[in-house]
Amino acid sequence: MPKAYIVRLIMDRIHESIIILKKTGDGNEKELIGGVVYRPFYEQKFFEIAFLTIVTTEQYKGYGTRIMNVLKNYAQSKEIDYFVTYADNHAIDYFKKQGFSTKLRIPEEQYKGYIKHYDGGTIMDCYINKYIDFKNISQIMKKQKEFIMNVISNIAHKKIYKALDFSEDTDHGFDDIPGLKEAGWNEEDYKNSIEDERTFDEF
Prior knowledge:
By secondary structure, this protein is α+β, with helices and mostly antiparallel strands. The chain is 34% helix and 21% strand. The chain has six helices and five strands; from the N terminus they run H-E-E-E-H-E-H-H-E-H-H. The protein has helices at residues 3-11, 63-77, 92-97, 108-111, 137-155, 187-202, and strands at residues 16-24, 29-41, 46-54, 82-87, 122-127. Strands 1-2-3-4-5 form a five-stranded mixed sheet, covered by helices on one side. It is elongated and about 75 Å long.
């Protein structure tokens, strides 16, 4: 994007911006490392993302996700339902990770005629779920992961069985494999799984 175009968007009063400042040195000084510029359409209940950028040295550290979550949290306070943006080929994967999709969910009449069309870009949208706490979503997901792992640990069968002896050329049957019965398998299911595997290999 040309610098003149970026400056024009930032200084245009119909656009709003959120920036990231990072403490440097002893913490008394701050450095601008990124930001997002968007145009709000409050009556239409959507924001058009003009551009989002993080300086090269600070990329892949989660700042892009953080600033997007801050914007989503702000959008919720304004009863905004969607974000819409035109993403270039290099940004599509990033926006997908932030909940954007190329299959638009926003009704066409809600945005058509309001946003600019950009050649060479892919239009994407993101639904802003009002029940998600985007401000604390990282901590929530961490707690959910810990909860799930604890549940799995508590119900997992912790008994360790002796390994099969493959030193001799012997076909091991259902009764020879320790732990199968305890895991809930029966001989018929075991045989069916073997047949399915052989069919897949032949295919």
